[in-house]
Amino acid sequence: MKNYFRFEENNTTYGKETMAGVTTFLAMAYILFVNPQILGDSGMDMNAVFAATAIAAAIGTAIMALWGKYPIALAPGMGLNAFFAYTVVLGMGIDWEIALFGVFVSGIIMILITLFKIREVIINAIPAELKYAAASGIGLFIAFVGLQNAEIVVPDESTYVALGDMASPTTLLAIFGLVVTVIFLVLGARGGIFYGMAITAVAGIITGLVEMPSAIVDSIPSLAPTFGAAFTGLTEVEWTSALIMQLIIVILTFLFVDFFDTAGTLYAVANSAGFVKNNKLPNAGRALLSDASATSVGAVLGTSTTTAFVESTSGVAAGGRTGFTSLVTAALFMLSLFFSPLLAVVTEAVTAAALIVVGVLMAAALKLIDWDKLEIALPCFLTVVVMPLTYSIANGIALGFMFYPITMILKGEGKNVHPIMYVLFFVFAGYIFFL
User: Fold this and answer.
1) Residue 296 near residue 108 (C-beta atoms within 8 A)
2) What stretches of 208-345 adopt beta strand conformation (E)?
3) What is the largest CA-CA distance in the chain?
4) Which are the contacts of 18, defined by CB distance < 8 A and separation ≥ 6?
5) CB–CB of 322/6 below 8 Å?
6) Taking the C-alpha atoms of 260, 263, 265 and 271 in order, what is their torsion angle to the nearest 10 degrees?
7) Which one of 51, 175, 215, 422 is at 20 to 30 Å from 224 when CA atoms are compared?
8) In angstroms, what CA-CA distances link 81 with 53, 166, 343?
């Protein structure tokens, strides 16, 4: 094992790698409870999604550990799960089974893109500013969902949205959770989001706002409600040209967000560990293939896109340098399968803080956009604000990608726009105007 993971070359030990793996798990364990709640809103069985989340994370992380050999953990990603539930299923009216099929196809396409080494072409085709805008817009969308779950933002007939009753017990519990979570994060505590949720849940139980779980440990939940639904659902839906077009947009969005999120996360984590040499990441293809494979596996199990987690940097900071770190994290995800009864205490008020904080962290990419250039600022601004205001990640990406070629042509820089962007203009225009 030492030789396989090159412990001596990476100046590490079993002790360091194990502690790093535990640290990474604690930093991202919140996804075990947040993901079932978000996907549950789309009609999926929460217990089955919990099991799918844990198993997909374990398998994906293990693949990364044994093949990619990087201290990078994978799990169903925030943002993509929100897109799955609120945009695709609730917004477009697509059955969650068909949405899972879209996730599966996006994973297969990602595998092909990586195998045929055309990822660089795609990376260079889409302007960096639009990537930053998409990430930030998804962050605002997630934060908006968190504010709604906390009942801080509520519907209003006159103004569409308004400030909720800040004195209501549910809102006060959510605000308490937000304060506790922020304290942990400001103090640099690894796993701050998870600890914040745990303390909020305990506070909810003490105050009677959250029910005490019937048990802490139980048998592994059944995957039956979601396993293979991505394929069984194909025969139970009436296929129309409109549905096919919608599914293409869904797949493109899954692919776009996962592709750049994964590439960015891999680079960030690898760079913090000192793996990046001459602006290149060794074995990047293996790492990307590990991620793509995990996405397809997760879709079969019954969860949205599985992707690399930037929280892996916490494990790197704790000394993780090899795939053994990821192997430890994968084992802990498998062990977590026995803790499904805790889902009962993770209410919307408990997870609200996690959504808001994750949204803030994602919105940090706004600082990387050149706001002084209107031809860039306008499409980026539309991408960011349209997502939460229309409750659709796809709408934001579509309008941003449509306006970018237009503003660049008006600026006299149309020749600098990659041909792929012009193709996407017509694809997204068809989605916006005809669906």
Assistant:
1) yes
2) 306-308
3) 66
4) 324, 328
5) yes
6) -140
7) 215
8) 11, 28, 17
The beta-strand segments (E) located in 265-351 are: 306-308
Report d(CA 148, CA 199) in Å as an integer: 21
Sign for the pseudo-dihedral over CA of 398, 400, 406, 408:
negative
Return the number of other C-beta atoms located less than 10 Å from residue 263's C-beta. Answer: 20
Residue whose entry in the numeric block shows the structure tokens 């099929």: 101
What is residue 69's three-state secondary structure? coil
Token readout for 237 is 């839906």
- The region that residue 372 occupies, defined by phi over 0 for left and psi between -120 and 50 for alpha, beta otherwise, is alpha
The per-type count for the chain, helices as H runs and strands as E runs, is 18, 4
Strand, helix or coil for residue 323: helix
Provide the residue-wise pLDDT of the chain in tens; the chain has 435 residues.
Answer: 888 998 988 889 999 999 999 999 999 999 999 999 999 999 999 999 999 999 999 999 999 999 989 999 999 999 899 999 999 999 999 999 999 999 999 999 999 998 988 876 777 788 989 989 998 999 999 999 999 999 999 999 999 999 999 999 999 999 999 999 999 999 988 789 999 999 999 999 999 999 999 899 999 999 999 999 999 989 888 899 889 989 999 999 898 888 777 777 787 788 777 887 776 777 778 888 999 999 999 999 999 999 999 889 889 988 999 999 999 999 999 999 999 999 989 899 999 999 999 999 889 889 999 999 999 999 999 999 999 999 988 899 999 999 999 999 999 999 999 999 999 999 899 888 876
Record the tokens describing residue 213, joined without a space: 């779980």
CB 400 within 8 A of CB 382: yes
Check: CB of residue 106 under 8 Å from CB of residue 305: yes
Torsion of CA 134, 137, 142, 145, to 10 degrees: -140
What residue has token string 């003490």?
A: 206
Are the beta carbons of 247 and 103 closer than 8 angstroms?
Answer: no
Residue pair 370/60 in contact by the 8 Å Cβ criterion: no
Q: Which amino acid is at 194?
A: F
> Which residue is listed with tokens 């745990």?
198
Which residue from 432, 367, 107, 55 is spatially nearest to 257, judged by alpha carbons?
107
Number of C-beta neighbours around residue 240 at 10 A: 9
Q: Under 8 Å CB-to-CB from 150, ≥6 apart: which residues?
A: 164, 170, 171, 174, 175, 178, 348, 349, 352, 353, 356
Cβ(153)–Cβ(170) below 8 Å: no
Instruction: Give the 3-state secondary structure of residue 26.
Output: helix
